[in-house]
Amino acid sequence: MEEKESERNSRNVPADKGLQDMASPTKKNSYRTVGIVFLIFFGFIAIVFLTQDSDTINWIEDYDVGVETAKQQNKPIFVGFYKSYIPTKTLEEIYSDQDIKEFIEARFVPILIDAAKNPEIAKLYNVNLYPAHYIKRPESSEAFGPLGYRPPLDFIPALKGLMTEMGMPDE
After folding, report:
1. Region 151-158: what's the mean pLDDT?
2. What DSSP string runs through 71-94?
3. Is the peptide bond between 76 and the residue preceding it cis, with omega within 30 degrees of 0?
4. Which of 127, 123, 120 is nearest to 145 (CA)?
5. Which residues pair with 110 in a beta bridge?
6. What is the mean pLDDT of the chain?
C-alpha cells in the first residue's frame, strides 16, 4: 500500500484521483442534460415562430401579380401606398391589428406599394399623401379612396364606407 502511495506521489498524482475519475461521468451527464434541455428549448421556440401566423397582412408587393391574383380569386384589390423613407410606425399599428388583418385578407387581395420605388403606380391612383389606401375591382379602372391614416378602431368602419361606395357588401 505504501508502495502504491509513494509511486503516486512520485508522479505528482493526487491521492484522491480515483474520486475525481468517479465524479467525471456525473459532470459529463449534467453537461449532456443541460445541452439537451437547451436544444429542446430553442427547438420549441423555433417551432412556435415558424408555425405562427404572420403579425401583419400578407402583402403582395408586385402590383401586376396582385391584380392577376385578384382576377384568379375573383376578389377586389386593396392597395396600400407608402414611402419607404417616411416612418412607418403608424402603418405597423394598422397592419398588425389582427381584426384589420383578417378583415382585409378575407375580402381583398392586399397589395403594398412603395411609391418611392414605384412612382408610376402611385401616379395611376393620383396618390399625393401617405399612407394612402384604395380599393378597386381588378378589371376596372375606377378606384375608391383614398383612405389615409386611421387609428385601428376607425380603420375598418372607414374601409366599409369605401366598400359601400364601390357597391361591395361589407359583411
Report:
1. 95
2. HHHT--EEEEEE-TTS--HHHHHH
3. no
4. 127
5. 78
6. 81
What is the β-pairing status of strands 132-136 and 109-114?
Answer: unpaired
Q: Where are the alpha helices (DSSP H) in 14-137?
A: 17-51, 63-73, 89-95, 98-107, 119-124
Contact by Cβ (8 Å): 115, 79: no
**What's residue 62's pLDDT?**
97
pLDDT tens string 131-144? 999 999 999 999 99
Cell of 138: 381588378
Residues 32, 37, 43: CA angle, nearest 5 degrees: 125
- Nine-digit cell at 109? 387581395
Distance separating the N- and C-terminal Cα atoms of the chain: 93
All three cell numbers of 144, joined, read 375608391
> Strands 143-147 and 109-114, how do they pair?
unpaired
